[in-house]
Specification:
Layout: H1 4-11, H2 17-32, E1 38-39, H3 51-62, H4 78-92, E2 101-104, H5 106-118, E3 124-129, H6 135-141, E4 145-150, H7 159-165, E5 170-175, H8 188-205, E6 210-214, E7 237-242, E8 255-259, H9 266-279, H10 287-296, H11 304-320, E9 324-325, E10 332-336, H12 345-353, E11 357-358, E12 360-361, E13 370-374, H13 379-384, H14 386-394
Parallel strand pairs: 1-11, 3-4, 3-5, 5-6, 6-7
Antiparallel strand pairs: 2-8, 7-8, 9-10, 10-13, 12-13
Bound molecules: pyridoxal-5'-phosphate.
Pyridoxal-5'-phosphate (PLP) binds near residues 214, 250 and 255.
Amino acid sequence: MISSNIKSLVESPSSGVIRKMFEEGAALKKKFGAENVYDFSLGNPDLDPPAKVLNAIKEVCAEETHLCHGYMPNAGYPETRAAMAKKTSLEQGVEVPFENVIMQVGAAGALNSTLKALLNPGDEVIVPAPYFVEYDHYIHNHGGEIVRVKTNDDFSLNAKNVAARLSAKTAAIIINSPNNPTGRIYSDAEITELAQVLKEHGKKTGRYPYIICDEPYRAITYNGAKVASVFDKYEYSVIGTSFAKNLSLPGERIGYVAVNPACPEAKELTSAIIFATRILGYVNAPAFFQRVLTKSWDAECDYSLYEKRSREICEVMDYAGLKYVKPEGAFYLWVKCPDKWNDDDMAFVNHLKSYNILCAPGSGFGGKGWFRIAYCCSEQTILNSKEAFKKAANDN
Ligand SMILES: Cc1ncc(COP(=O)(O)O)c(C=O)c1O
């Protein structure tokens, strides 16, 4: 018999709505032709991986060393961990030793291993809303409870709202910057204020909640914006990330966790995450792509192409008369449903479908009344969607 919990999740209308949309998109493209379907459903980057990565793949293929397909330490190859430690040190402005890096099966694996390591049954994880749809499941996977906290009207962090929801059960807060779905980047001042609130709570209660920085979009920023460092502001912090978005490798399932070396529990937490990686059944991150990334982690896609598309999709929204948040990074546009839809984003997204436009409803992200456009698609799709969006926004 199937678990009643999983059965109800599988059958719930909001579960897997983005994936369902993606599959419906494929069917619509077959029926109407790809050029007549505007598929903005999934954050599947359409830029090819950089040449440096493709060359590294060929090099690794050619280096058939004995046992290169074998088991390895659960944390990953030491040289790959060292490369990730160098990357994290550059990004965080803090020296991170390779021992603090644990290779993971994508950012999703990074979050699950970290939550498994941190949560006791009934512990709470704070999540500023709107947020990446899968957090609910990742937190529940490990016996935790999600605590959704409102952000400000411009979707910046509201530390006071976080402070109001801290309790003895708070194990962590997950922040995601640049943000999926809002495209917001949290400023240095926002992170500093959040760190202050958590430090005060820790001093009072003896339990310092962890900041888990989920940052697979770190490299994709516009207008030269920089993503704030967290390691220099708060000791109880970890980075969970992947190369899914910056190097267009989502199917290769490769990422890592880096634990702040200043964390008083860094050693124990690292051991716990390594253990969690093993017992969750990942055992270790994919061997082949660890070797590829050891040679190519510092490659880049041309992110200015996403920036150009962000301007184009904003122009489409202006033309259609739809309100949105101007993205600062990642490749998502967060759009308000027209007033006459009374915040029923599910109904509006269904209505968009009748114009061959596929978007993700905001409710799944904890953002009722909004919807998400993933514009990591061809420019032609964006430009061609103009009239369809205008009609859909103005019809009932
Ligand atoms: C905010 C956020 N976190 C985590 C993930 C999962 O990334 P990965 O494919 O590397 O597991 C995604 C994927 O879309 C995401 O948007």
